[in-house]
Specification:
Layout lengths: L15 H12 L2 E2 L2 E2 L1 H9 L13 H16 L3 H14 L4 H12 L5 H10 L4 E6 L5 E14 L2 E8 L16 E5 L3 E6 L12 E7 L3 H4 L6 E7 L2 E8 L2 H11 L3 E5 L1 H17 L7
Antiparallel strand pairs: 1-2, 3-4, 3-7, 4-5, 5-6, 8-10, 8-11, 9-10
Helix pairs in contact: 3-4, 4-5, 8-9
Length: 286
């Protein structure tokens, strides 16, 4: 069957034909053994190749996409995370260590632990969890309650577990069964028979006072039990299952936020402030 073809005449500067033939040769577009300018034009018209500056991700864009990849993986959207990882590998200007890390993620996708944990939580079914801590140790927990929280740009799995031996010097004995785990450090989840803990995580009540601008600027948190303004002070009572995050919040508010009680939390804030003063060679009386 004869194919219809159109003929066009191009007026191009001297030497342009050679450049077009070189591009066709590089792209593997030939007519017989010779590079084909006509074939190159057809390929461009059919959008088989990009024209102009190649699309590339700058370091700022790569950093933003990496954060998105982490959030997608923590949320259980593993396939979408893999797609973005492949895009960053293809179009990003990457240093060798970063490229190697992304290649490993793409070639060995992580399990969607978020999905499995959500299913077990919904069924109120206990489970064994294998976790790799930052020290390179593998820890096993018998989980009887779990919830997901978002803290400082990352999702975490908060659990109530039977095991307590991994806590050598508990600063808060009443919270010794609570753990806050990174989703990307989970190595295995296995459902087991047993009783689900309906009371949730262990907690303690922390009394906070907010001053000056924070009296009006403060936004109530889901774990706030009481929140009222008395004279010029906003007084808050919050249920806290992990003092680590609370103390980071308190220090961020600076002099406008004070932990009133309990003494265990208040003392820990004082120790943090003393250490900070020592870093700046400031003397603090006890």
């Amino acid at each position: 069957m004869k194919r219809n073809k159109e003929t066009i005449t191009l007026s191009i500067p001297s030497g342009t034909k050679e450049h077009l033939e070189e591009i066709a040769r590089r792209l593997g577009i030939f007519w017989g053994k010779s590079p084909s300018v006509s074939g190159l034009l057809v390929a461009i018209a059919q959008q088989e190749f990009e024209v102009g500056e190649p699309f590339a991700l700058n370091p700022t864009q790569v950093a933003a996409l990496q954060q998105a990849i982490g959030l997608l993986k923590d949320s259980g959207c593993v396939e979408q995370a893999q797609i973005i990882s492949s895009l960053v590998l293809e179009r990003g200007k990457l240093e060798p260590p970063m490229r190697q890390s992304l290649l490993q993620q793409v070639s060995q996708p992580s399990e969607a632990w978020r999905i499995l944990v959500d299913q077990l939580r919904g069924n109120q079914q206990p489970f064994h969890l294998l976790y790799g801590n930052p020290q390179g140790e593998d820890l096993s927990f018998t989980v009887r309650f779990a919830e997901i929280s978002f803290e400082e740009k990352r999702f975490y799995l908060n659990i109530w577990c039977d095991e307590t031996d991994d806590i050598k010097n508990p600063g808060f004995p009443e919270l010794i069964h609570n753990r806050c785990l990174r989703l990307d450090r989970i190595k295995g989840v296995v459902p087991i028979n047993g009783q689900w803990r309906h009371e949730g995580l262990d907690s303690l009540k922390v009394h906070l006072h907010l001053y000056r601008g924070m009296v009006k600027a403060y936004e109530s948190k889901p774990d706030d039990i009481d929140n009222e303004v008395i004279e010029d002070v906003r007084q808050i009572v919050r249920r806290v299952s992990n003092p680590f995050w609370l103390i980071r919040e308190v220090l961020r508010y600076g002099e406008d936020c004070v932990v009133v009680s309990p003494d265990s939390v208040r003392s820990l804030v004082k120790e943090k402030l003393k250490t900070l003063c020592q870093h700046y060679n400031l003397e603090v009386s006890s």
